[in-house]
């Protein structure tokens, strides 16, 4: 089973959040194909030109994420949302290196819309994944590390039914066990927004994510189940059995 959703408490505080979610099975990951690499590089340069000298803090999508972070007690200039961190690197360094097909698809759409896109390998996930306020008992392993940490009480996290955190500070950093590897075949893919035009952006981005996945990461058995989540539709579940 794959399942992703928002807790009632979180939606009560953030009723405006909109999430696009894809439950993906039968994916093929690996080194980034040349055509996708070229598309990604071209998008990076287009984004640099589009942003120009505008401070990232003034982009509506990023400003809304900064406000969301402050809402659960996190200083957004100390812990930047994944989308802002990507765009910050891009505008300062001039490029974002390729990692693998799934990660690059996510990053391409993330910089295009200025929204955090996450690709979570489900191999280490148990049961439902929920975005909620942490009670501090949950377990988290930072990407690239092996030491277990615990989130702060009241921090927004993604965690499974066993308390394994797959993303801290909402969309600051995902965990080591959930990172998309070349062996990834099943994943939960998310893109989220808080700004006024968020639903429109999420609808477009969700369509583009599915198109990119079908073009570059699909096999004969690929199945993509997608929806938009909000306060009136807080969860998506796919009961299909794993291969």
From TrEMBL:
Residues 63-218 form the B3/B4 tRNA-binding domain. It comes from the Bacteria. InterPro entries: B3/B4_tRNA-bd (IPR005146), Phe-tRNA_synthase-like_B3/B4 (IPR020825). One of its GO terms (molecular function) is RNA binding. This is B3/4 domain protein. It comes from Ktedonobacter racemifer DSM 44963.
């Amino acid at each position: 089973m794959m399942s992703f959703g928002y807790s009632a408490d979180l939606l009560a505080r953030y009723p405006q959040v909109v999430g696009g979610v894809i439950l993906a099975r039968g994916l093929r990951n690996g080194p980034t194909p040349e055509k996708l690499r070229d598309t990604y590089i071209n998008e990076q340069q287009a984004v640099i030109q589009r942003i120009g000298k505008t401070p990232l803090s003034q982009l509506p999508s990023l400003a809304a994420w900064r406000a969301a972070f402050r809402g659960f007690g996190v200083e957004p200039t100390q812990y930047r949302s994944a989308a802002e961190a990507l765009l910050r690197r891009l505008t300062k360094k001039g490029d974002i290196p390729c990692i693998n097909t799934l990660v690059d698809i996510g990053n391409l759409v993330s910089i295009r819309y200025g929204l955090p896109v996450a690709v979570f390998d489900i191999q280490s996930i148990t049961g439902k994944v929920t975005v909620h306020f942490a009670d501090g008992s949950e377990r988290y392993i930072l990407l690239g590390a092996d030491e277990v940490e615990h989130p702060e009480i009241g921090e927004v996290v993604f965690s499974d039914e066993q308390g394994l955190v797959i993303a801290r500070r909402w969309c600051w950093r995902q965990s080591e066990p959930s990172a998309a590897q070349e062996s990834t075949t099943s994943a939960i893919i998310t893109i989220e927004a808080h700004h006024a035009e968020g639903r429109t952006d999420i609808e477009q981005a969700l369509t583009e994510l599915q198109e990119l996945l079908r073009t570059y990461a699909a096999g004969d058995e690929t199945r993509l189940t997608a929806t938009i989540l909000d306060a009136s539709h807080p969860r998506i579940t796919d009961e299909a059995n794993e291969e």
